[in-house]
Amino acid sequence: MTALLQVEDLxxxxxxxxxxxxxxxxxxxxxxAGKTLGLVGESGSGKSVTSLAVMGLHRGATxxxxxxxHGQELNGLGERELGTVRGRRIAxxxxxxxxxxxxxxxxxxxxxxxxxxxxxxxxxxxRQRAIEMLAEVGIPEPARxxxxxxxxxxxxxxxxxxxxxxxxxxxxxxxxxxxxxxxDVTVQAQILDLIARIQQERGLGxxxxxxDLGVVARVAHEVLVxxxxxxxxxxxxxxxxxxxxxxxxxxLLDSLPRLDxxxxxxxxAIPGSPPSLIAPAPGCSFAxxxxxxxxxxAEEHARCLSERPLFGPLSPGHQAACHLPxxxxxALG
Amino acid sequence: xxxxxxxxxxxxxxxxxxxxxxxxxxxxxxxxxxxxAACGKTCSPDRLAEVKAAMGLDKPIWExxxxxxxxxxxxxxxxxxxxxxxxxFPCLGYSYEYSLPVWDLLVDRLPxxxxxAIGAAVLWLVLGLGAGVTSALRKGRPADxxxxxxxxxxxxxxxxxxxxxxxxxxxxxxxxxxxxxxxKFTDNPFEWGSNLLLPWIALALLYAAQYxxxxxxxxxxxxxxxxxxxxxxxxxxxxxxTVKHGLRSGMTPILTIFGMDLGGLLAxxxxxxxxxxxxxxxxxxxxxxxxxxxxxxxxxxxxAAFFIVVANLLVDVLYAFVDPRVRY
Lengths: 333, 328
Prior knowledge:
The complex is a heterodimer of chains A (333) and B (328). With 333 residues, chain A is an alpha/beta fold. Chain A has helices spanning 47-55, 79-83, 97-100, 107-119, 123-136, 142-145, 155-167, 185-202, 213-219, 237-242, 247-254, 291-295, 298-306, and strands spanning 5-16, 19-31, 36-40, 61-69, 72-73, 90-93, 173-177, 205-210, 222-227, 230-236, 311-315, 318-321. Chain A starts with a strand and ends in a 12-residue tail after the last strand. Chain B has two domains: 20-91, no CATH class; 103-322, MetI-like (MetI-like fold). Chain B has a two-stranded antiparallel sheet with strand order 1-2. In chain B, α10 (238-266) packs antiparallel against α13, α11 packs across α12 and α12 runs antiparallel to α13 (294-322). Chain B is globular and about 85 Å long. The termini of chain B are close together. The model of chain B has no long low-confidence stretch (mean pLDDT 87). Chains A and B meet through α2 and α4 of A and α9 and α10 of B.
């Protein structure tokens, strides 16, 4: 059976005056209907670029590799064909719902406008659809609020509007790019629960892009950790949290503050900064920041710095790109 | 909204009153003597005193100012007895040069300036916004660079240069159009348009470049907004994304400068009208300056202030309709 979304060897690069930026350098992942893939990484790891490339919204970038939706290749499609996919079969919601919604149009208009385009629906039917969608995402008095403007909504309600907009055309896949980052913690949970509920009802595939491992733990089935435009580790969510193999994943988990920390315990940050995407070092891109590389023997150390680790299986369903993984190969296979 | 409008209108009246007072004081302080000018060269001291009294110039400045303001709201009489001249509401004074109420002169000249301003505005909006938006959508590509070089070029041409070149090239050498003469729109719309075409072009070129640059910048800014990405992600046709989502927010800032520019131009384009010999407000002002016709200068100044202040108010009110976040 063909997966809902299958991305193979995706590479996205930008030509800049300072050189070619390899924002995404060979990423593979699959999203099944009804499942959530968590795409995790820090700023500049390529997670947002990956999602924009799937939508064909990468402006001025070179994209190679394969992006298949139900087996249909999307990479290389023209604007017209992509128009029948965007918003209709793949929906996308963004981080900051205030700036991502147009300030001059009512939320009803913004929910309905692509519904009218994709389904050749009338104004009246579009409005009806907008009211339905507002009700579905839990906005009280939808028939009244449909005529209000984004600035009249609170942050959480605005993100609900974004979700209503995304789902108005019954897409198969939802790409959520940091949908809760700009929201209060209590509202975050509500939004995540809303996405999860709608996903169950509709069998929606979800790509959840986030830097927040708490969000991943809550919603993802499968997790792909990205570092410097490449895949660092991929595993089912329980496995990843229980036994992270890549020192970077480990570092991310360790950097989360814990309730049982003493008050004066320092935050465990990963030292150093993200790698250059213009002139990547020959070896593992995480090696300069990696505690295991530093602690390794001279021979292993040299290997980390000179040879790029391949992204390969450690155990069924668990892959990492590391010469010195934390889980011995095959130990839990 | 009504309350807001009321407050703003009071503000408008206040500003106009202040401008009136300042201009009036400046003219009062000027060394030249309007009575002597009105009386003529062979004027006896007795006659001069009579003229002064008739014009009200023998009174202290606040009384003169009060009389001026009264004239604006209720009309006034100059002199008394059989020689008295009545200046009806709204009386902006009496022109020494034309021996006519300033208001009548303004009303007579206004259609010329309005015709000039509106025609030029249409032209520069089409040219300027067209070039600006085209540039913005092709940012960094050859079309953008060519248009921006052109706009720098036209922006650096002074209006008296373009006007003279147009007259020389199109009227004198090619004989394509007559030397402009003003025809009333109501008499013959075609003559009206063809005679005004050159002044329209001269004036429009002056503004178009500025509008091209402004609209390019604000359109580029608008197209970089996250909500444009949202619109694309929804699968809307690119024309809808550009026009409905980009243009509407990109053109909003243009409204402000357009209001100011049009308001200023309605009260006359001094240089353009003078070069093309158009009998508009600008020309009236220019002649008034040459002949120290103070009531005319004062009247035109007030009219210009009135247009600019009202244009500003209109722009602010329009904003509330364009941008739903604006509430009064």
